[in-house]
Amino acid sequence: MGLFTSKPDYSKIRTKKNKQEEKPAPAWVKWAKCVTALVLYLAFLYWVKSWWGLIVVPFIFDAFITKKIRWTWWKDLEGPGRMIMSWVDAIVFALVAVYFVNQFFFQNYKIPSSSLEKSLLTGDYLLVSKLSYGPRIPQTPLTMPLTQHTLPLFNCRSYLEWPQWDYRRVSGLGKVELGDIVVFNYPAGDTVAVDWPYDFYDLCYSTGQQMCQESGVEIPPMRGQDTEAQMAQFNTIYGLGKQYIQSQRNTYGDIIVRPADRRENYVKRCVGLPGQRLQIKDKVIYIDGVAQPQPELVQFDYAVYTKNNNVLPDALCAELGISDEDRAKIMDHQRGMPLTRHAYEVLSSRTDLVDSIVEIKDGFFGNLYPLDHDYGWTRDNYGPVWIPQKGKTLRLSMYNIALYERPIRAYEGNTLEVKDGKIFINGEQTDTYTFKMDYYWMMGDNRHNSADSRYWGFVPEDHVVGKPLFIWLSVSPDTNPEAPTYRWNRLFKWVANIK
Known about the structure:
499 residues; disordered N terminus; eight-stranded antiparallel sheet; alpha+beta; 12 helices
């Protein structure tokens, strides 16, 4: 019986075994790891030019050499505590790593709309390179990784509004070039109604117009009035609509302001660079007076009249890349169906299916930029506009102030007032302004179905996110979400090859 009166202490045996297994690494190995980590970290600090990060150096040294801080204290725990903390440690490490990669190197982006079809399709997932144009130092640094502005499930902000850092971009591999497809933050997304997915400014103005019409108030045409009168009329109608939107919280949600890097992501093609003069004439873009070639897959709207108003066959639509959404527009002859040149030629030859195809003529299809001045422009005949360039001085006038009011006031942080035919910036009368940032003109390849710079104006350089590299996944929106159709032929297609 004496042999079984006491139990062996297995914890001591286990501890002894663990100590035998965890043999210390040779000193040169620890120093090699430490030096490698420090070199990489210091190179990163030099790249981003943020020397505040030097306070982390002693902690890196301790983690490899001195080991005074017990970074993995939870490994000494017993039972479920150790398992829980191991998961917490792994999750925190993964979130930090994802935040770091997303912020400075690569980001995922899903094409949400048809504005770039048929170049990029709704349901394409893109790998976006932030190295191409240089990553931005985070303006809103405290944010949940893998979110843009809203925390899923909780439906609240996924970022803290403090601290807010000034815009700064580190060196990249290049600059935005003419024809590049670019991901950027939506410029007019500074103020949003959280339950309304579209432009807040256009929403308020359109709502104000509708309220005036319903009340029998006649709105005089803007064209023909002087600039100051047009601005005043816009502000009155806009204010009326905004007041109504604010009162309808159950419909539109809260009205909030978002910092530049937390605004919605958009993707368009850059068709105008800083310092260039852009004009659209009969759907053709002119840069400094020179006509630009159209993208290979550019689309315009056509009224398609089929035999007996029949729907186009599935096989033909699949061959031409016509989505269910586009095919449904056959019955809407006013707005039309978007077609590439190839699709137009094929359908024109199918006299067994199609009676005629009529090009949709220019007309009113939404409020154009700037909302507070009617220049008589249309979506197919727009401009000319000079695209602001950093360091360049523009002579302001009562004719062009409406075009540049938003960049001067909203993007570059000045006060601007037009009074008695004079322009006041930061309280001082002036007729010139020197821009602090570069700006770009962005448009979709689906020209008649794209909310782009024609509707909300210039894209400031501090809104540029990055350049899409390739499509890593493509899912057709026309299929059942429970049984999606994958477009395998689009996988790993390089965006740079889409011209």
